[in-house]
Each structure stands twice: as structure tokens, then as C-alpha cells.
Amino acid sequence: MYHPLAYRMRPRNLEEVVGQQHLVGPGKIIRRMVDAHLLSSMILYGPPGTGKTSIASAIAGSTHFAFRTLNAATDSKKDLQIVAEEAKMSGTVILLLDEVHRLDKTKQDFLLPHLENGRIILIGATTENPYITINPAIRSRTQIFEVYPLSEDDIRLALQQALLDKERGLGNMPLTIDDAALNHLARVTNGDLRSALNALELAAKSTPPNTDHVIQLTLTIIAECVQRKALSHDKDGDAHYDVISAFQKSIRGSDPDAALHYLARLVEAGDLASICRRLLVIGYEDIGLANPAAAARTVDAVLAAERLGLPEARIPLATAVVDLCLSPKSNSAYTALDAAIADIKDGRAGQIPDHLRDSHYQGAKALNRGVGYQYPHEFYDGWVNQTYLPKSLQNKQYYFPKETGRYEQALQNRLKELKRRKKETPPH
């Protein structure tokens, strides 16, 4: 039976694991578990192709426990029962459960007692954030370990091992690979070893030998065989929210280079809707009153981007990102509103003063509605000392201006002037 190169090159023990040394290196937690023969169930969380299955198979190879693989989305409760029966007969089974976040309640309820008694050591694998997607009953019985994309050096090392390995790899083929081709393959797969190995095998087996009977893998050949792993992501997945978060925080932190990097990721993913929505939020959440003109320009840029569509939309989007990055920042307006909302939720609303209540109906005057209201436009500078907040919230201050940006500095000066006049002028 044919198995792809990535399958054949899976590590047989922890020493053969490429990368993830924070988990399997000497003195690290998974290595300690194996050395002490004290394995516990775990969830491995990280991007595709980064070694979750490899770590599971290496653990099994290092402990000599039976190793079984199931998929939580496609395999049934009966498949779990078969594993449980095997565990009763042989002692302990390591179960790699792929897509563990898709485990339904029926399968979960069956699995839990077997995790409790240790017959089944679960190694759940998922690309989704387990703290968000996995049921607490499973989380409480497992340790959660994050795996990271492999570095270019890690990928290059694994590719070289596959080229030399005569038993499981391509060592029996008359292969040579240019350094530029190897480096390109290590780089463009963005930490996904599975993609890199599969591309290498395709290149090796689809390239005819030259006149010297050597299969020469050049940069051109590798580029044609590798399916470039773009930094795109499931728009409902964990990676999506990480990129969006990094995008906004880079703009908030006034770093245009980082912000443009994350914008590029979102553009490459074709996620125009998320970009536009986030830029509008940033314009008012992070820039706000420090530079209202920048927020207005962002609205114009978003309208242009939506009209143009990708790829041309990237042009106004890049302009807006740099503009927002280098603009002064203020969150004073929306944090003031949030403070007011918090009072409302806590029941601190109070009764609206009578002179502010609606008086546009017959009988309102008899109820004292609107009586005594002073129309500010009839006074100097459009202002009159008058009570507006409910009595229970008198002297409450929500808005605290910041000194970032000329516009909000002007607002601050205006607010100070009005407070001074309020102290000096008797209320009407």
C-alpha cells in the first residue's frame, strides 16, 4: 500500500521529532512524561502540518503502547468502543483523536470514564483554540499543549533527512536538489512540514533524469510542484481572530510596518469584508477625537475599496492603514460611553429632570413637563448653566479628554471653560 512521504517520515520516537522542542526536548514536559512512564491525556493545538500527529506517534514509539488513530468528526462511537475493548485486553492504548473539537456529547460521554481509569491515553489534535471549542469536561481531563509552525531551519533539516533516508525516504533515488530550491521549499510552505515533504516527493517522482541519469531538482521545478501555503485562514477559525487582533493592535501601537504585514495576510486571504469592518472600528475606537478627519478619510477609503474590490482595493486600504498608524490616538469618547452604559446596567439611571422631559402634548404643563427649560441658543455662546443629568447622578463625569491631537485639545479647552463658567454662573 502506498503511503506519502510525509506519512513514511513520521518520527518513530521523540528523538526524531523535528521542532517543538519546548515540548519534546530534554527536560521538557512531554519528554519527562515519557521518561517517567507517567503519560497523561493531552490536547495538541496548532496549525496543520506542524507535528501534532508526529508527536503522538513518537510518544507511542517511545513507550511501546498500542497506538490507534481516529477522527472525532467521521468515526463513530462503535470505533471508540473497539479501541476501549482493545485497551481492556492489552492494558493501555494511546488514541490520537484528530479534530477533537468535533467530538459530540455521545462519544464524549463514552470516552470520559476510560480517560479517568487510564486505559485510554487521549492525544487530541486540533487546529482550533481548545479553550474556546472543546467541552470543559474533556479539557479538565487533559493537559493542553500548543505546537508552533516549524522554522525554515526545521523544515530544511526534515527535507534533508528525507532525501538521505533509504528506508522510508528518497535516499534510493538518484536525486540532487539545488540550495535555492531547498530554501524556497522550506520558506514558502510557512512551517507546514507535510506540505513541504509532499511537494518534494512530487518533484522527485515527476522529474525525468538528465543525461547523467540524475534527477536534478531546480528552483523552477520545486516552484511548480509546491502548492504555496499562503497565510490565509478559515474566516471563522482561531487564526482569523489572531490576525485581526494583531492588525488592530499594530495600528493602535503606531507601527505601520507591522500593520501593513497583517494587512497583507488579510489581503492574501481575500478577506476584504473583515479588513473594511476592522478599519472602520479602528478609526473611531483608537483614533477617535484625536483626529476625526482620519476617521472620515478611512470611511472614504473603505467605500473606495468596496467599490474597487480586490486586488485594486489594497491601494486605498494601504493608504488608510498608514494614515491611522501615524495619527494621534484617543479612545476617550467610546470609553466615556461604556462608563455610562455600565451605570445603566447597574441600575444607576435616575429620573430625567422635569424640564428636559417631552412637553409636546396637551396636559404636559400640568405635569410640569418641560417647565423651566432654557433654550441654549438664546444665550451668549449657545450655553446656559442648566441641569441635565438625573439628580442621582449630579456631578458625574464620564468623558475625560486626552491631550493627543489638536482637535481633542481644543475640546478639552472648551470643556474647561464651560466648567469654569458653570462654577461662576448661577443655574437658571
TrEMBL record:
PANTHER family registered for this protein in UniProt: ATPASE WRNIP1, WERNER HELICASE-INTERACTING PROTEIN 1 FAMILY MEMBER
Highest taxon of the lineage: Bacteria
Keyword hit for RNA-binding: no
Residues covered by the AAA+ ATPase domain: 38-150
UniProt entry tagged with the keyword Lyase: no
Keywords: ATP-binding, Nucleotide-binding
Classification via InterPro entries: AAA+_ATPase, AAA_assoc_2, AAA_ATPase_RarA/MGS1/WRNIP1, ATPase_AAA_core, DNA_pol3_clamp-load_cplx_C, MgsA_C, P-loop_NTPase
Pfam families in the cross-refs: AAA, AAA_assoc_2, MgsA_C
Similarity-based family: Belongs to the AAA ATPase family. RarA/MGS1/WRNIP1 subfamily.
Protein name per UniProt: Replication-associated recombination protein A
